[in-house]
Amino acid sequence: MNFLKRIFNKSNNQQNDIETQKGKLEEDLLEDVLWNFANKKYADLGTFSQALIAYNQKIKPDHDLDIKRIFISSRKITVQYMFWGEDEDGDEDQIEENFTITTDNKKGFALNDFLFQVHNQVCENMVDEDATFFQGLMPHDDDSGVPFFFLNQGS
Q: What per-residue string of b and e applies to 110-148 under the rule 16 or more CB within 10 Å gives b?
């Protein structure tokens, strides 16, 4: 079984989220999840989970978001996002930053755990940004063996 097919789980209502061809993931993930990163850090997963559910219900009242669904069986993920900041010369520039997160869940990353960790990692750099809304993940094969995703950000 190839690496990407092994690490990604398919739920019944998301059968078409994951399509592989030649071992490469082609479809974006978690596009059904709504979130804004331009908020404060959350102290714990429970508080974040309540905010995530409330945010999604406010915008899409009929959407039933399963925040505990395991969307990837890997316990380690690398994420890249973009924000505006100063480069080493002190000039304003678009910065691309990578970070790696892990989970203790042996089954893999649950949606709420993943987004909680990502939020707390990126939120301070998103305060003055235009593109602060989560619009899913775009997979990228960086040949590291660790799933790598670009954070799709919108305004």
A: bbbbbbbbbbbbbbebbeebebbbbbbbbbeeeeeeebb
